[in-house]
Amino acid sequence: MPNPNLHTRPPQLDERTFHELFGDPHRTAAVVYYLSACQSEATATYTEALRWREAHAGLYEQFVSAVDAAQRAASRALQQAWAPYSGFPVGAALLAVDGSIWDGCNVECSSYGLTLCAERVAVGHAVVRGHRDFVLLVLTTDTDEPILPCGACRQLLHDFSPHLLILSQAARSHRQSLRWLFHLLPEPFSGKHIWKR
Asked: pLDDT tens digit string along 101-148?
């Protein structure tokens, strides 16, 4: 059933991308979650996703619980944000493939270029503990409309998890946006560009 809190309808997954993601055991539940939240008409991929959800109800519920926990972690992180210059606090939480959650908030600096975005703080928090592969990012802002990651954060997130699902939520209105990172950064720079020189 589509999510009534979604601010805009997310892009559809083409069949090739669906099967690529659906075949990854770490991301199958995320694909089903995405289609369950945004799909309104019956398609072959949606039907396949629903069959998986029925056959693996326990696994799917575990993923949904992890998403809920990540949303709460991002909301708590929002309260710790240090944003005295912009007045724009942001909280983030990354769900790793092992189910662990890594939070972060934006940390501003009087030398603006040294400011850290919440997403990058969350990545650093995870990496220092040995986690480098993520399924979901929750991004929470004190706004009426959900806000997506900036370009620099999209690039950093791509380096770790190109197939990341991003759930943005607006704390004031509870509106949400659900996107895949590859939709937000369709032609990324990556390590292959360095190694091919």
From this structure: 999 999 999 999 999 999 999 999 999 999 999 999 999 999 999 999
3-state secondary structure of 90: strand
DSSP secondary structure code for residue 195 in this structure = H
- φ/ψ of 137, rounded to 5, equals -120, 130
Q: Which amino acid is at 192?
A: K
- What is residue 11's DSSP assignment? P
pLDDT tens digit string along 57-108? 999 999 999 999 999 999 999 999 999 999 999 999 999 999 999 999 999 9
Choice among 41, 48, 119, 187 that is catalytic: 119
What SS3 state is found at 91? strand
What separation in angstroms does the CA of 184 have from each of 55, 59, 100, 187? 31, 28, 24, 9
Distance CA 9, CA 37 (A): 9
Alpha-carbon distance 96 to 106, whole Å? 20
Give the whole-angstrom CA distance, residue 72 versus residue 181. Answer: 21
Instruction: Compute the half-sphere exposure of residue 94: CA atoms within 13 Å on the CB side of its CA.
Output: 27
Would you call 119 a catalytic residue per the annotation?
Answer: yes
